[in-house]
Design brief:
The chain is 46% helix and 15% strand. The chain is built from eight helices and nine strands. β1 and β2 form a beta hairpin. The N and C termini lie far apart (105 Å). About 21% of the residues have low confidence.
Length: 302
């Protein structure tokens, strides 16, 4: 038995040695072949081909990812900012953010709730300017709560973009017809508030909104437009100067229109017309537009 085991160990050691010799011979042959290919310059060509294949795969992968990201980014805007067709003969000056403490909802013009001093992305030209005026009705006890009853939006050239009677969420207790011009029959088939709110915000998003004491309109609309994209004609001292009024005294839309254009608005017993008021507001803004925008730009830069 011991002789058999000795023979087995001897044979296994011989096999191990022969296996090692075979592996060494293979490795030597591989090295000789590699040296031969390197001398001929063929090995570098193969390596370059492999590198090129890897690069092309990476480029294709990045291109595909880039396309997917761009497609995904197109979905991000919450509202479509389609603009009705109007004249494009006017070219506006660039817009800058105002220094204001008014809270805003857009991150394009603010950083952590504070207006920035950077220029607003392209918000210029007549297609980007609208004037808005709203009329309110009373709800609650004795009509003490003002809610949106009508909204009108006009373009830079005075074309009517939107004009709808709006049904408040609460029952109307005072139509305020003497000032609002709204009657019971006007709200019978009026647009529900939440539907109208979406339509209005869709129109004014991304635009410069001109208005007279427009914070009241935003409040009724339950919406905060960026301060740097708002032009309130009650807060433009240049208008008061041109009209001959005290610089910091808020003048009514009716007085300013009469003083600057010798035109009467808001007359008669039928109440105000929000379309007429919106058009008058836009015309007032045009009187001081160049000077006012230049002043805002200088304040933003300084």
């Amino acid at each position: 038995m011991s002789g058999i085991s000795l023979n087995l160990t001897l044979n296994s050691s011989k096999n191990d040695k022969s296996g090692k010799c075979n592996r060494n011979e293979k490795h030597e042959r591989f090295l000789k072949k590699k040296q031969y290919l390197m001398r001929k310059g063929l090995l570098k060509d193969k390596q370059n081909k492999r590198k090129n294949r890897r690069r092309s795969k990476k480029q294709n992968h990045t291109q595909i990812n880039g396309e997917e990201q761009s497609k995904a980014g197109a979905i991000f805007p919450k509202f479509n900012t389609t603009v009705p067709h109007t004249s494009t003969s006017f070219v506006s000056t660039p817009m800058f953010c105002q220094k204001s403490s008014t809270s805003v909802s857009s991150t394009a013009c603010t950083s952590q709730g504070k207006p920035t001093k950077k220029m607003v992305p392209p918000t210029s030209g007549p297609l980007k300017y609208v004037a808005m005026d709203c009329e309110m009705v009373g709800t609650g006890p004795k009509g003490s709560i003002g809610e949106l009853g009508r909204c009108s939006i006009v373009s830079y050239n005075g074309d009517v973009i939107y004009d709808e009677f709006i049904k408040p969420t609460n029952p109307v207790t005072d139509y305020r017809t003497r000032w609002s011009g709204i009657r019971r029959q006007d709200l019978r088939y009026a647009t529900p508030f939440h539907h109208a709110q979406k339509e209005i915000i869709k129109i004014i998003t991304g635009k410069v909104v001109v208005g007279h004491a427009i914070h009241n309109d935003y409040k009724a609309l339950k919406y905060f437009h960026p301060a740097c994209q708002t032009r309130d004609t009650t807060k433009i001292p240049l208008l008061n100067q041109k009209a001959g009024f005290p610089e910091h005294e808020p003048a009514s839309l009716k007085r300013l229109t009469k003083a600057l254009f010798n035109k009467d608005i808001q007359t008669g017993r039928r109440g105000h017309s929000s379309v007429e008021d919106a058009k008058a507001t836009m015309e007032l803004y045009k009187v001081v537009e160049v000077e006012w925008e230049r002043k805002l730009a200088s304040e933003a830069i300084s």
